[in-house]
Amino acid sequence: MRFGVLAAVLGVLTLPVPPARCQSDWPMYGHDESSTRYSPLSQINTQNVLTLTRAWTYHMKKEGPRPMSAGAVGRGGGRRTSQATPIVVNGKLYMPTPYSTVIALDPETGQELWSFKLDHGRPAGRGVAYWHGDAKTPASILFGTSDGRLMSINAQTGKPTAGFGVNGAVDIKTDVQNGFPNAQFDVTSPVSIYKDLAILGGQIQESPGTGASGDPRAWDVHTGKLVWRFHSVPHAGETGNDTWEGMSWKNRSGTNVWGLMSVDLEQGLVFFPFGSPAYDFYGADPQRSIPGLDHAFPATTPERLPVGVVPGPLRETDVTGGERLIHPLEIGRPGASAGIVWAPWRERRHRGPD
Fold this sequence. Notes:
By secondary structure, the chain is an all-beta fold. It has strands at 2-11, 73-74, 77-78, 87-89, 92-96, 101-105, 112-117, 129-131, 140-144, 149-154, 169-171, 185-186, 192-194, 197-200, 203-204, 217-220, 226-229, 262-264, 269-273, 294-298, 305-308, 315-319, 324-326, 338-349. It contains no helices and 24 strands. It starts with a strand and ends in a 5-residue tail after the last strand.
């Protein structure tokens, strides 16, 4: 596997002021919508990091004996591990566990404030999202699940959010399965929030070529109602459909957003890192279009704005996501009309002619 960087140039518009946050917060997976992964906190630094000692431990497994050894692990199975990046908002730490719970802790002491147990499935392993709430709906924790649901729970109480779907959950799997009832669809990465929208992709099959769609979608955070759906493989009459031979676009799987999105609040854009079309492991399929693997979209309507392309039809090439949005002032060009998207990607070579 190789990792690289994809860069593209975008226009920059006049920006509204982003919401104010406490300096000690880490309110989303990449710290902020632009995925800077930067915190201004300085109490822990290069001079004292070696002297840190453990302050507390929280045991994720609550029932039964705790394993003393991690055991074997493999893709698609093996031991239960946590890939979660906790978020911290208003003095509370939120995170998923591999034991079918989402928890809230006191970040200073590790004391459990509440624990929400899923009735089936597991929460997305990389993290959860926080929505600030309003007069209609309280502040909420939103996350996808391993069995294809979008869930919302009250950030204060840990109870299902009233009015969201059915008992705080929405089935987001059925309408992308394209008539394949056993097609894989699950969620492994955090929800992205833009205003009152919860934006989410999903993990789907790598083979065969037809199955569940990889379309990213957005839901209303108050009700769980679907607001928009973007066809990552363009349908008949849509831009780019002519790059697919014959009817090869129909029910095509892959081309999904399994990784991490970034949002430009100022321009109202969401950046989707798309994976390869299925069949992922054999790119010589003459009917398989080579997509633009990184795209920007107006966050309130599914319109395609291409940003960049990673070539490689004979390889599985995924933009892994968490695109770093770099604005003109950061790159020393005040007043410039361009910004930069810095996107990590991965490439894996597979069997087949090269």
